[in-house]
Amino acid sequence: MPGSVANFLWCLGTLFELCFVVCSLVRKSFGRYFFLNLYFILSVLVSAARFLTLNSYGQESDQYTYTYFYTDALLTLGLFVALISLYSHVFGELGFSKQIRFGAVLLLLGTAAFSYGVVRQSEGRLATSFAYELSQNLYFVGLVLTYILWGAVLKLREARTRLVQIILALGLYFSAYAASYALLNLADKYAVIQYLSQLLACLLPLSLSITMLRHTEDSRIATAPLVAVQR
Amino acid sequence: MMAALILVFSLATLGMFFVSYCRSLVAACSQYSLSAEVRDVTGIRTAAEAEDFTRVVQVLQLCPDRAEDRTSLQAVGLYHSLLTLVQNTAAKLAPSLRTWAEQERAHCAQFAAVTLDRRIAFSREMLARQAEL
Prior knowledge:
The complex is a heterodimer.
Chain A: H1 3-26, H2 34-57, H3 62-91, H4 97-119, H5 126-155, H6 161-186, H7 191-214
Helix pairs in contact in A: 1-2, 1-7, 2-3, 3-4, 3-5, 4-5, 5-6, 6-7
Chain B: H1 2-27, H2 36-42, H3 52-60, H4 67-88, H5 95-132
Helix pairs in contact in B: 1-4, 1-5, 3-5, 4-5
């Protein structure tokens, strides 16, 4: 990743991720949003691993490239699991948890198979290409899943403010990330697009920390007026 | 072609999630009753109006900054700008859109006033703590 701006955003993002975990602990919500916390803890560990690899081998080394793409795929998987755990929050009371887990595994396997199908022709770094393709596809799948989850929240009149804001923040994150991946494919020569993903990585934990701090688990909100296009 | 389609879909959902997220931030403040001081300072009599937003934000800039409300305020500020744009362009063709945009801008002003109230309370608390030391 290039330059001091990227390094600054990287540090800031890691700081906000730690901040979210601390906020969850302070507000006694660590267990309730366990997989989201696990994702951020994983993200902090990944940052440390990337930093060590960068320091030891340099930015242009194969070691750093492998570490970067494999850990990126791992993080995307972590976020996918966190998103599925939010499905369990919304649908848990209806007794659909088992079906959700089964569906999530199927979807994950399907995405992995599709990603493999796309990259199997590529010569050389097949595993790295697969990791990159899987990440990219999982972001798009995540976006579609968040969109469906938001629809379910509106339909079921889910009123927990925290849950609603977490889902909306994730929706923003997934859609912005998917858009930045698409932009990167369309116009990779513009360096500014590469900073977008890091900026987004800062905004997600920050917005979730604010939600944790500002609202309690008992806070409620009416979701019907939140729809972007009113009927 | 595929990347362009994904881009269009992502941007559409980004817009939808952004509006809903901003409305969730604003809605969480709609029931909050403003203190007498904030009413005096901002000139808000009963409920915040669409035109109050800019004035309240100017007053907010005079208060000590708080990291935890900065991002939300920026997001709502962007939402307010978009609404103003809608009001000045598309709403001229559809009067119902104009009323809706006006209401939304008033909610944004209420959000800014609540943020001001919280910042004043926070500054007071800090001053009290310093005095104790």
